[in-house]
């Protein structure tokens, strides 16, 4: 995806929509430790830093760090609270912090950034830097939408095929729970799901959410060539999303996976 102003705006809108869907920025039971202060929190793959900024403002006595592979979307010092910070780093090179550094580790929407094996490696890094009795939370989306119209299905099918050709798994979210359960240090694993309606039939929120998906596909400039159609015909398919979503009551599922890290020596 291009890292321009349009993409940053899309990330900001997506953040607001996620927060609305879940009625909050997180589901892990960390409210009390964040309020008490002195908690350290990591957002891995923070993008434009919206999640870090929100929590930094809501919990001024805790510290929040965002990591991303590029800094173009990072807020300036004047745009963020003093308890937040941002670091440029490639997560595939490991997380540049010692073991047991953070009380709470968060990662979201990274299914397009990593292959399956890379994603699993990053999960192990998240666990490594989480303190004992700390929490890990991962948010992902099932981009296999439900009740698709013909135009949306043709675009989605082509997008999934392109991902597979490039070594990515469009159903990667299914593997996250398996990975978490395979790690002995993790317990209290929860799998939360919210179904999100798309289009005008679901009101303004449904329109905004569908709008974010349309922008996502419009930014995928390689798709017309891949589908062997013109740019104008590709745009016509996207323009039909609104009508077809209302006709078919299209929706998608989003997920939060939560786990607590324990010290195995304490449980023996």
Silhouette:
globular
Give the full name of the CATH homologous superfamily: Vaccinia Virus protein VP39
**How many β-strand stretches?**
7
Low-confidence stretches: none
Beta content: 15-25%
Protein name: S-adenosyl-L-methionine-dependent methyltransferase
Domain Methyltransferase: 41-134
GO molecular function: methyltransferase activity
Keywords: Methyltransferase, Transferase
Characterization of this structure:
- The protein is α/β, with parallel strands linked by helices.
- The protein has a single domain, classed as Rossmann fold (3-Layer(aba) Sandwich), CATH 3.40.50.150.
- 43% of the residues lie in helices and 24% in strands.
- The protein has 11 helices and 7 strands.
- It has helices at residues 5-22, 31-36, 50-58, 116-129, 150-165, 173-182, 203-219, 223-227, 231-239, 241-248, 264-267, and strands spanning 40-44, 63-68, 84-88, 102-108, 130-146, 186-197, 251-261.
- A 7-stranded mixed β-sheet has the order 3-2-1-4-5-7-6, with helices on both faces.
- α4 links the parallel β4 and β5 (130-146).
- α1 runs antiparallel to α7 (203-219) and α4 (116-129) crosses α6.
- The chain is globular and about 60 Å long.
């Amino acid at each position: 995806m291009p890292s321009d102003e349009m993409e940053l705006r899309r990330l900001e809108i997506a953040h607001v929509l996620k927060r609305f869907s879940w009625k909050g920025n997180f589901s892990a039971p960390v409210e009390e430790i964040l309020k008490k202060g002195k908690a350290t929190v990591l957002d891995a793959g923070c993008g434009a830093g919206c999640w870090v900024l929100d929590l930094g403002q809501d919990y001024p006595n805790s510290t929040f760090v965002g990591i991303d592979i590029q800094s173009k979307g990072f807020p300036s010092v004047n745009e963020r609270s003093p308890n937040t910070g941002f670091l440029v780093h490639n997560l595939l090179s490991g997380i540049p912090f010692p073991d047991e550094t953070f009380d709470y580790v968060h990662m979201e929407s990274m299914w397009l950034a990593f292959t399956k094996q890379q994603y699993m490696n990053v999960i192990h890094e998240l666990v490594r830097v989480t303190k004992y009795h700390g929490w890990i939370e991962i948010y992902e989306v099932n981009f296999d939408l439900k009740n698709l119209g013909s135009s949306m299905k043709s675009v989605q099918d082509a997008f999934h095929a392109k991902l597979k050709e490039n070594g990515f798994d469009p159903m990667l979210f299914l593997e996250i729970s398996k990975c978490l359960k395979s790690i002995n240090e993790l317990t209290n694993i929860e799998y939360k799901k919210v179904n999100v309606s798309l289009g005008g039939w679901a009101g303004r929120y449904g329109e905004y959410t569908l709008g974010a998906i349309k922008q996502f596909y419009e930014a995928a400039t390689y798709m017309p060539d891949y589908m062997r159609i013109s740019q104008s015909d590709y745009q016509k398919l996207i323009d039909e999303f609104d009508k077809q979503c209302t006709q078919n009551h299209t929706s998608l599922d989003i997920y939060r996976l939560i786990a607590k890290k324990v010290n195995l020596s304490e449980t023996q």
